[in-house]
Design a protein that fits this description.
The complex is a heterodimer of chains A (about 550) and B (about 290). Chain A is α/β, with parallel strands linked by helices and about 550 residues long. Helix content of chain A is about 30%, strand content about 20%. Chain A has 18 helices and 25 strands. Chain A has a five-stranded parallel β-sheet with strand order 5-4-3-6-20, with helices on both faces. In chain A, strands 8-16-9-10-11 form a five-stranded parallel β-sheet. In chain A, strands 12, 13, 14 and 15 form a four-stranded antiparallel β-sheet that branches. Chain B is α/β, with parallel strands linked by helices and about 290 residues long. Chain B has one domain: Thiamin diphosphate (ThDP)-binding fold, Pyr/PP domains (Rossmann fold, 3-Layer(aba) Sandwich), CATH 3.40.50. An eight-stranded mixed β-sheet of chain B has the order 3-1-4-5-7-6-8-9, with helices on both faces. The longest helix of chain B has 19 residues. Chain B is globular and about 60 Å long. The mean pLDDT of chain B is about 95. The chains are: A alpha/beta (about 550), B alpha/beta (about 290). At the A-B interface, strand 1 and helix 18 of A face helix 1, strand 2 and helix 9 of B. Strand 1 of chain A pairs parallel with strand 2 of chain B, so a sheet runs across the interface.
Chain lengths: ~550, ~290
């Protein structure tokens, strides 16, 4: 009997399930993946916006500034003047309003000036020399990027000081000169040689080519367009850019009491705002309706608040000389929709005639580059230098960008063009590693549906405050108040960080198979345990910001 | 930013739960919060499958697989035996499905609550007999399709959380996998309150049984809370009610739209369900101070 007793083992369990490879069940595996955010895709300088905004959120301000200046050396200036395509593209727009990216850029840019942060010196010097013609946004950006690579740069500028449109165009009340000066000094401190007050022409090209390995043409567009209705010699008719420049040089051109500005872009708004500050009356006559005027809506709103009268969707048909003033005969128009892109054809609306009396008419209908003496040296078409995707002109070693070569007349576009041209010039000079990091075409931009909004409580955007309108009209002091520290952090916290992991651990926390581990060695912070991942996709779904992708697997 | 969750590794990879299983996720948070000084009691259920297969175990603690009707009684017996051996520290936790809690194990649970046994009882509620092929249980909600209610269930879900409150036990809480920090906090709180039966009902959407994608477990769980169908709350000593997460403006229509078990519903049916949810929520709301 005793020999047949069945012995029951005290412990039946011999091991853990972790020896089972449940990963063999899956057909797809989630991967951590940095993906482009829409703000990045829209940014004219390819700014890594989610990264520096995240650094602001972490109060790593110097790091944020260093990330910003990778692509844009003048954030205090661009943080005031950019047309902000990033905010238009922001995924948060569909939720509770775009993140105030431009105001944050100004916040970081201003802090850098206040703290006196300098650019790191180039790691090694090269003997190659590049001449940059024009010290505006494109030229400064290009010179900066070339110096960072150790290339020797000389900027030639026709004006007494560098800055171009930033210093001689945009009025003080939108962009204080001291900010421009501080940011330019930081660039020249990198060892950029400056030859100011000398206007180079096409004639000088041969001489430059003897002394420099490459030439970058970025002198902008300063030849103001004219309307045939107005005679060039009439002292009652001014060009907008000349007027703005004269104010910047503290020698304002004489204007009368009643000003009519013709144009619908930023220059027109700046002229009207400046005339109001000089104590005159300003009316604006714009061909486009307000919604499609080239000037950003907030700039239009500013001058209207300050007392300008806007006649949008209208044009001048005839000018009558009233011995002293001019009488403009105007009519409302609609823009013909059935024209090819780039062509503007107004259709008059009968019976809407009106007149405007002007002591001074200021034309702000655009500018062309002054290329007359360049045409037999580089190819010019439609009033602009012709360049390829690498910013090369038809002449070897001569590159061009900014308003000289681009119909998109935005300062931030010029900064981006200047940067990309610098990379191209560096490659031309033998720096084959001068290639910008980007995303593979297969990596998709993060869209709003990739965002898990559960993790983002709604919070309205905060924009920069504005100085009281009476104070604004009394002088040229800056009209926008930068964000406070608290406002800046609040805005930074609103950023979804689309496509950029911030190590929230959600992917690891929501894995029912414990198949995602923190990995300090991975640039993407985590590793997926191949042997356990069953491919459910919970990590992907619970990632708040679309910083993961799926890799299909075929057995 | 992100959840702060401390885990002691008790629940292991390599288990047999379906991809994306909410029950496995719940087990992870519960077991890894309880830690190694615990004994689990598991009746026949998906949980029994996930804890096995013999001789391997996904749980690095002793697990006793009892009969379907006896989880609470078995856990109470183990706890009493530990105490008589002088062990007052080891937590004994019964982890059962809704079939083993709302239906078959209910008598043992009610009796253990009435005796106020010193155990933690967790119900992983996926609203049906999912392990055997999606039959209805008394936890299946109104109008939901199961293979035994092909036209939709005719009666509402049994309100076991409130029944447990009526036993005047020291702690009752509802939790779900879409709110992992809340679930972990409730397990910790249950561990701290000793000397009586602590009951946690955890809603764990069954991906196959409810007809949602493998990735949608946590999201579906949150929809249940946000639409007011499954408010997260806790009750101490049968009377002190605290609301943790209630409805936030989403409707029953938002909840049922993502689940195949509700796809036969007409807009009128959804309205009836909404009225039922509104009624229950109004009733419950009165209990919060």
């Amino acid at each position: 009997m005793s020999g047949t007793v069945k012995r029951v083992p005290s412990i039946w369990t011999t091991g853990s399930t972790d020896i089972l490879n449940t990963g063999t069940w899956r057909s797809a595996i989630a991967v951590h993946e940095k993906r482009p955010a829409p703000c990045y895709g829209a940014c004219p300088v390819d700014g890594e916006i989610p990264i520096w905004v995240q650094q602001v959120r972490n109060e790593e301000f110097n790091a944020a500034w260093l990330t910003l200046v990778e692509n844009n050396p003048i954030p205090a200036a661009i943080g005031r003047t950019c047309h902000r395509p990033c905010e238009g593209a922001c995924n948060r727009t569909e939720y509770d309003g775009a993140v105030s990216i431009n105001a944050l850029e100004q916040y970081v840019g201003d802090m850098a000036i206040r703290e006196g942060w300098a650019f790191p010196a180039p790691a090694q010097e090269s003997q190659k020399m590049v001449a940059v013609i024009g010290g505006g946004p494109a030229g400064l950006s290009c010179a900066y990027q070339l110096r960072r690579k150790g290339i020797q740069v000389t900027i030639f500028d026709a004006n007494p000081e560098l800055g171009g449109v930033l210093r001689y165009g945009v009025p003080e009340y939108r962009l204080p000169k001291k900010m421009v000066a501080a940011e330019i000094e930081r660039i020249t401190d990198l060892g950029v040689k400056v030859v100011a007050g000398r206007k180079l022409t096409g004639e000088d090209l041969g001489e430059l080519e003897k002394n420099f390995s490459a030439i970058f043409v970025a002198f902008g567009a300063h030849d103001a367009k004219r309307l045939p209705l107005f005679t060039k010699s009439d002292s009652r008719v001014l060009d907008g850019i000349d007027f703005l420049r004269s104010i910047r040089l503290d020698a304002p051109l004489k204007i009368g009491r009643k000003i009519v500005v013709i144009g619908g872009g930023s220059v027109a708004m700046d002229v009207a705002g400046s005339a109001l500050r000089l104590g005159q009356q300003a009316q604006i006559l714009a061909l486009e309706g307000r919604a499609v005027m080239p000037a950003p809506e907030d700039e239009i709103e500013d001058v209207i608040e300050e007392g300008a009268l806007l006649h949008d969707g209208a044009m001048v048909k005839a000018v009558e000389d009233l011995s002293g003033s001019l009488l403009l005969h105007c009519i409302n128009v609609e823009l013909d929709q059935n024209v090819s892109p780039g062509v503007i054809r107004p259709i008059e609306i009968a019976g809407t005639e009106f007149t405007l009396e002007a002591d001074t008419v200021v034309l702000a209908i655009g500018q062309d580059p002054e290329l007359a003496d360049w045409e037999d040296r580089i190819q010019v078409s439609k009033g602009m230098a012709v360049v390829d995707a690498d910013y090369k002109t038809s002449r070897a070693g001569v590159f061009a960008a900014g308003d000289v070569a681009n119909i998109e007349r935005f300062v931030s576009t010029a900064v981006g063009d200047g940067k990309r041209a610098a990379y191209s010039i560096a490659r031309y000079l033998g720096h084959q590693d001068a290639v910008e990091e980007g995303f593979a075409d297969s990596v998709k931009e993060v869209s709003f549906k990739d965002i898990n909004t559960f993790y983002f409580p709604t919070q309205k955007p905060v924009e920069r405050g504005k100085v009281d309108v009476d104070i604004r009209k009394a002088g040229f002091a800056e009209i926008r108040l930068g964000l406070t520290d608290e406002q800046a952090l609040d805005q930074a916290r609103r950023c979804f960080s689309c496509g950029s992991c911030i190590e929230c651990d959600n992917c690891a926390i929501f894995c029912p198979d414990m198949a995602i581990l923190k990995d300090a060695d991975s640039p993407l912070y985590y590793k997926v345990l191949d042997q356990y991942c069953k491919g459910c996709g919970c990590c992907l779904e619970e990632c708040p910001r679309g910083a993961m992708g799926v890799k299909e697997e075929t057995k | 930013m992100g959840y702060e969750i401390q885990e002691e590794k008790v629940f292991n990879s390599g288990h047999a739960a379906c991809p994306g299983c909410s029950e496995a996720l719940a087990l992870r948070f519960i077991l890894n919060t309880l830690g190694k000084d615990a004994i689990a009691v598991v009746p026949p259920s998906c949980i029994a499958i996930i804890s096995g297969p013999q001789p391997l175990s996904s749980m690095s603690i002793p697990v006793y697989q009892t009969t379907l009707e006896a989880s609470a009684a078995s856990a109470a017996g183990i706890k009493r035996a530990l105490i008589s051996k002088g062990n007052n520290h080891t937590n004994v936790v019964a982890i059962a499905g809704d079939g083993g809690t709302y239906d078959i194990g209910f008598q043992a649970l009610s009796a253990a609550a009435e005796r106020n046994e010193d155990i933690i009882y967790v119900c992983l509620d996926n609203e049906g007999y999912m392990n055997t092929g999606t039959q209805k249980s008394s936890a299946t909600p109104s109008m939901a399709f199961t293979t035994s209610t092909p036209a939709g269930k005719l009666s509402p879900k049994k309100n076991v959380p409130e029944i447990m409150v009526a036993h005047n036990i020291p702690y009752m809480a509802t939790a779900t996998t879409g709110y992992p920090d809340d679930l972990v906090r409730k397990v910790k709180k249950a561990m701290e309150i000793k000397g009586g039966l602590r009951f946690i009902n955890v809603l764990t959407p069954c991906l196959a049984g409810w007809g949602v994608p493998d990735s949608a477990g946590p999201k579906t769980s949150r929809l249940a809370v946000q639409s007011g169908i499954y408010p997260l709350y806790e009750v101490e000593n049968g009377e002190t009610y605290t609301l943790n997460y209630g409805p936030n403006g989403l409707s029953v229509a938002d909840y049922v739209a993502t689940q195949k078990r509700y796809r036969h519903l007409s807009p009128e049916d959804v309205e009836l369900l909404q009225a039922e949810v509104n009624h229950d929520w109004e009733k419950l709301q009165k209990k919060f101070k």
